[in-house]
Each structure stands twice: as C-alpha cells, then as structure tokens.
Amino acid sequence: MAAADPYKTLGVERSASPEAIKKAYRALARKHHPDNSGGDENRFKEIQGAYDILSDPEKKAAFDRGGFQMPGAGGAGVPFDMSDLSDLLGSFLGGRRGAGPGSRSGPAPARGRDLETQVRISFAQSLDGTEVSLPVPSQDPCPDCRGTGGRPGSAMTTCPECSGQGVTVQSDGLFSTQMPCPKCRGVGRVPKDPCPTCRGTGRRPGGSSLRVKVPSGIRDGGRIKVGGRGEPGVGNGPRGDLYVVVHVAPSQVFVRKGDNLEIELPISVSEALLGGEVRVPTLDGTKTLRLAAGTRNGTVQRLKELGAPKSGGKRGDLHYRIAIEIPKDLTAEQKDLAEKLGASLDQDPRAELLKRAERLRGAPASG
Ligand SMILES: [Zn+2]
Ligand SMILES: [Zn+2]
Q1: Residues 248-254: contacts with CB within 8 Å, 24+ apart?
Q2: 180 C-alpha to center of ligand 1: Å?
C-alpha cells in the first residue's frame, strides 16, 4: 500500500493556508468521529494523521520534500520491534503507585489515555487464532530508589516538562485533552540525579508479560481491545485501554478477500481447452477440482466453506482464480500444431466486435 497523501486526505491544495487546513480538518474530524453515527475510526485516524503532518511546519516541509511517510500507512509492512513496545509501556504503564506525597493536591481525576501497540503474526496464526505476549514493565518500585527514580540522596526538582503541574494539555484544535505528564508520571517533581538501577523510571527492572488472545479469523489491521491496560489516569482516574493492532504476514499461497480466501490457479492451455481434474491446495491438504472444457482465463471456481473462519464457527469459501499459462517459444512442431488447431477451429473472434463498432460509427452496413 502506498503512503497516503495528507493533502488528499484533508482535501486541500498544497498551497492551502494553515487556517484552511485547520478548517478542513475540523469539518472532516467532526464528520468521521467514531462516536458519531456513521463515524469511521480508520478514516478518523487517517484524518488525524494527515493533520498531524500538515499542522507541524517541520513535518509538513519534510513531506513536501518527499521525505516523510504517514505513520501507519504501511499496512502489513510495518515492522514490529519489541524494544519499542518496552519503551512505550515503560513510560506509560509505569503506574502511579509511587506517586508519593504531594499528589493529594494534584489535578482532578481524569481517565488515562488509550494506548496502541502493534504485533505481527503469521498467516496461519491469523486463521487458527493465537496468543501473543507483550512485555509489561514491573509495577513494583525500584528497590534502590524506592520508586522515586532518583539516585539515593538526590534532591528533587520541579518537573521541567509540566512545570510541576503533573499534567500536560494536548490540544488538536478540536478537543483539548489532559494527560499525565510522561516525564514525572503526574507527580510534578523529578529527581535531579536519576537512579542508576532503574534509569529514573522508579520501577524494578525487568517485568512480566501480558498474554493477549488473538481470535481466529482476524484480518490484517484488526484491533484487539485490552481493557484497563492503557495509560494510568490522573488523580485516581481510571486507566485507559490498550489496543493491540495485529499485522498479518501475507501468505505465499492464499490471499484474503473478506471471509473468503483466493488462490491463483495456473492451468495449461490444453487443460483450459479440454477440461479435466486438477489437484489444488487447500488450507489443510489438497482437493480435486473439476475444470470444464473451455474454462476461461480469470474465471473463479469455489470450494464452499474451506476459507477463513468467520464468527459463529462458520467459514468463508476458497476461491480458485484461473490463470491460463500461455507457453512462449514454441518449437517448430508445436507451432505447426497450433496452426493446425487454428485452421481447424476456423474462428473469427472479432467479427461481432467489428460489427458493433461499425454500428456505433453510424456507418452504412456494407453487408
Ligand atoms: Zn511533569
Ligand atoms: Zn531506581
């Protein structure tokens, strides 16, 4: 899949002013917001992603130079790096257990933000269902700094990120969202000198893992919600949710088309002409497919309920799309046979077409 063009996504000209871009974004975001009836979460995200680029002068300039791709536009090609996830969860799933004194006068309770992470599974796993393991940093306080994240004896200082507020406010022009400051995790103060054991996170190094069930039949780009495993809330607010985006590796044999699976099935010229029985692959073995004499290129034959699992225990169908292999570089003998076949068939395959074209031009019928 090609990277989306943010100008196209927002429907604005390349020369559009920041105001015009903002206006287009607001209208589209309102229209496609997932909370609306007829809203579309994917479309909404795409719009947000586009605005993220075009509202940021640096990113916008980079895109205009051709050096910037919209994140998430890569589909199945997005690489998954466990260490990224570790960092992500480390900064957000750190919890507020060690918030300590001072948090009582903190901000009003607010729900934590939702988080999104990505996993890759194989094509077979997407059909059978599987379980993935996501690393979760420890929630226990670091034994050396007792959760402060500071080198023992280090003084505390006002968090430079949030100026001691414990929250940062993010405004995208439509909504402003209050979220816990990622640097001080809502405490408002950070140690001057980070603890070497936990590198300032305040959590015991190491951690556990979160097992997430991936249902059978999941499609590429499908999302699984893990309730309550998102970012911690502010001031005793509930945690957000974690969304796991599943990327399914493409199969060498099958192409997913909704609940059906499609296979391109090569057949020979003589098989196409004469028909017959051919052995074809299925998900769990092979079957025999009967070809009619005169099978055309591009036609589809179905084996019912041998496709991808659907909800409710049913399955889609398996489709075989016929691809006639036309041989090149015939020997003299084969050319001779082809000519003989042509002469014997004595076809005029374009006669009807030429007649129709002639009628279209309004030319007098030449008889
Ligand atoms: Zn802070
Ligand atoms: Zn520590």
Answers
A1: 248/76, 248/120, 248/121, 248/122, 248/123, 248/125, 248/126, 248/218, 248/219, 248/220, 249/76, 249/120, 249/121, 249/122, 249/123, 250/76, 250/123, 251/123, 253/281, 254/123, 254/283
A2: 8
From the CA of 141, the nearest ligand is 2
Instruction: Kindly state whether residue 59 falls inside one of the protein's structural domains.
Output: yes
pLDDT per position as a tens digit, 116-169: 888 999 999 999 999 999 887 776 778 888 877 888 888 888 988 888 888 887
Ligand 2 centroid to residue 194 C-alpha, Å: 8
**Ligand with smallest separation from the Cα of 146:** 2
Q: How far is the CA of 212 from the centre of ligand 1 (A)?
A: 31
User: Taking CA 86 as the corner, what is the angle to CA 85 and CA 91, rounded to the nearest 5 degrees?
Assistant: 100
**What confidence tier does 327 reach under pLDDT thresholds 50, 70, 90?**
very high
Alpha carbon of 11 to ligand 2 centroid (Å): 50
Structural domain for 228, as ranges: 75-248
pLDDT digits (tens, 9 = 90+) for 260-299: 999 999 999 999 999 999 999 999 899 999 999 999 999 9
pLDDT value of residue 110: 81
One domain, residues 12 and 126: no
Ligand nearest to the CA of 143: 2
Q: How far apart are the CA of 237 and the centre of ligand 2, in A?
A: 25
Q: Are residues 139 and 92 in the same domain?
A: yes
CB under 5 Å of ion ligand 2: residues: 142, 144-145, 195, 197-198
CATH code (residue 130): 2.60.260.20
Looking at the structure, do residues 151 and 238 belong to the same domain, yes or no? yes
Please state the domain count of the chain: 3
Do both 119 and 182 map to the same domain? yes
The answer to the question of residue 185 being in a domain is yes
